[in-house]
Amino acid sequence: MGQNSREDATAAKGSAGSGAVATPSSSFLEPLVLGVLLLLVVLVILSLVITPTPTVILVVTLIAALGLGGLLVGVRGVRRGELRAAEKRANEVENQLQQIQEQALTDSLTGLWNTRHLRDQLPRELSRVKRHQIPMSLLILDVDHLKEVNDRLGHAAGDTLLRDVGKLIKEALRVSDIVGRWGGDEFLALLPEAGKADALAVAKRVRFRVEQYRLRVGSETRAVEVSMGIASHPVDGEEAEDLFGKADAAMYLAKKRGGSHISVYAGPVGGKGKRLGEYLMELGVSTAEQLEEALRYTLEATKRGEEMAVGQALVKLGYASAGEVEQALKLQAQERGTTAS
């Protein structure tokens, strides 16, 4: 959270709190109780002097006890009422302060966390997962063709699209995940305790929800596409800036591949030395862990005397389809040819 939001929240807390401390005092009742008690004691003494009769003494004592007890009950009732009122005012001030803080950290259009909060949370979450030695993934999502929607259907339609996509993303994530609008047409999700395989599963869940969605403006209905990039701690980076840069690079590669694509970071873009598995990762088909499992599968097949490529192993393990492997092979051949020329 930025400096300005902290100052605004502090100022609001101070102004709200100053209204809460002004409560009616009941301290004046304590001298009154003592005065009445003293008066009753005097009356009892006088009654003993004037009329030393046991009955009179008993009656006066009883009246004094009842009067004092009633007065004490009244004082306690007033104090309890004041405490309840003060507690109610304190809760109201706390709720107002919480609303102010949330507004300072919330994107006004989508209701998700804003850039300021995400910038604050990313290093915090990284620090936490480092301490516990657990993975964390970063997912960057870009809404494709938003400018076209704004130009053709109006900015109100574009705002509706961003609100709805933000809702779809949030619904697809886990409770522990942190999602917000990074700015413009981009969203950012922090996925604690999620390696690349888990993050890819989340991204595919988001993509499925978005693919089912239709933007309706008047009589026009429009399908929506998103591009997503994934990078993971610790394999892709230890620091927030490095991790974000790699997730961002993967997202732009997904946009380059076409609409509705997911890209898992697999190293620098380009270069004829890239393997098939890296293209499958860039296409959001598989992860490094799944590729390693496929490699082990091919080694076991070789020991049995079978000839098997990594792509075939991924298909057999259910991590890729034959069509996806073919697409990756075409990309590999195309980019190797471009590099060679």
Q: How many domains make up the coordinates?
A: 3
Rg over CA atoms: 35 Å
What characterizes the major β-sheet?
5 strands, mixed
The average pLDDT score comes to: 80
The shape is elongated
Helix content: 55-70%
Broad structural category: alpha+beta
The CATH superfamily of the largest domain is identified as Reverse transcriptase/Diguanylate cyclase domain
Q: If you consult CATH, what is the topology of the largest domain?
A: Alpha-Beta Plaits
Can you give me a brief rundown of this structure?
The chain has 341 residues and is of the alpha+beta class. The chain is 65% helix and 12% strand.
Description:
- Helix 2 (29-50) packs antiparallel against helix 3 (54-105), helix 5 (146-153) runs antiparallel to helix 6 and helix 10 (288-303) packs across helix 11.
- A five-stranded mixed β-sheet has the order 2-3-1-6-7, with helices on both faces. The protein has a two-stranded antiparallel sheet with strand order 4-5.
- The model is unreliable at 1-26 (pLDDT under 50).
- It folds into three domains: 3-104; 106-265, 2-Layer Sandwich (Alpha-Beta Plaits); 270-341, no CATH class.
- It is 65% helix and 12% strand.
- The chain is α+β, with helices and mostly antiparallel strands and 341 residues long.
- The chain is built from twelve helices and seven strands.
